[in-house]
Amino acid sequence: MYTINVNGTNYNVNADGNTPLLWVLRDILGLTGTKYGCGIEVCGACTVMIDGQAERSCSDDFSLSKLAGRKITTIEGLSPNRTHPLQLAWIAHQVPQCGYCQSGMIMTHAGSGDSNLCVCGTYQRMSEALASVNGGRNGGGNGN
Ligand code: FES
Ligand code: FES
Question: Phi and psi for 17 in degrees, rounded to 5?
Fold first, then answer.
C-alpha cells in the first residue's frame, strides 16, 4: 500500500510499487486527462507536475514507490474551474485539433518542462496562445 498526494488529496493505492504514475492515475484513480502516448518518455502526452515541475508520468523515475511526500498535479487539478491562464489562452486561440496531446502540452508549459510532440501540428496556434499569456513574448518550448 502506498500513499500518494494528487491534486491535494491523499490516496492509498494498493498496487505494485514499480507501476509508473501514469497507470496509477489513469487505471486506478480514474484521472484519464493524463494521456498515454509513447510510454517511453518521448512524446509528453503523459505530462503532469510533480512538486511544481513538469514531469513525464510514464517514466520509471516516477513509479508508485517513489512518490511518497511528492505533490502531484494533473490537468484535472491545474485549476478548480478550468480558468488557469493557459487553459483560457488555449480556448481563445482554439489550439487543440484532435486534443489528445493537449493536456500534456498545458501541463508542460505550466511546469516549465521539455518540448512535447503533437501529431496534429498545432504548434503555431500554441505559440500564439503562449505569447498571449506571456504578454506578447513567445513562451518557447512549443514542441519544435
Ligand atoms: S507517454 Fe510519457 S512521454 Fe509519451
Ligand atoms: S492536437 Fe492532436 S496530437 Fe496534438
Answer: -65, -15
- Taking the whole predicted model, whether its pTM rises above 0.70 is answered as yes
Per-residue pLDDT of 40-57, as tens digits, reads 999 999 999 999 999 999
Q: Which tens digits make up the pLDDT trace of 122-135? A: 999 999 999 999 87
In angstroms, the CA 66 to CA 122 distance is 34
Paired with 72 in beta bridges are 6, 50
Q: Are 41 and 58 in contact (CB under 8 A)?
A: yes
Ligand 1 center from residue 59 Cα (angstroms): 8
E strand spans, 14-109: 47-50, 53-56, 71-73
The rounded Å distance from CA 27 to ligand 1 centre is 16
Give the helix ranges, DSSP H, for 54-122: 85-92, 102-110
Distance from the CA of 139 to the center of ligand 1, in angstroms? 22
The Cα-based distances of 58 to 28, 43, 135 in angstroms read: 14, 10, 33
Which atom of ligand 2 is closest in space to residue 120's alpha carbon?
2
Fold of 2-133: Ubiquitin-like (UB roll) (3.10.20)
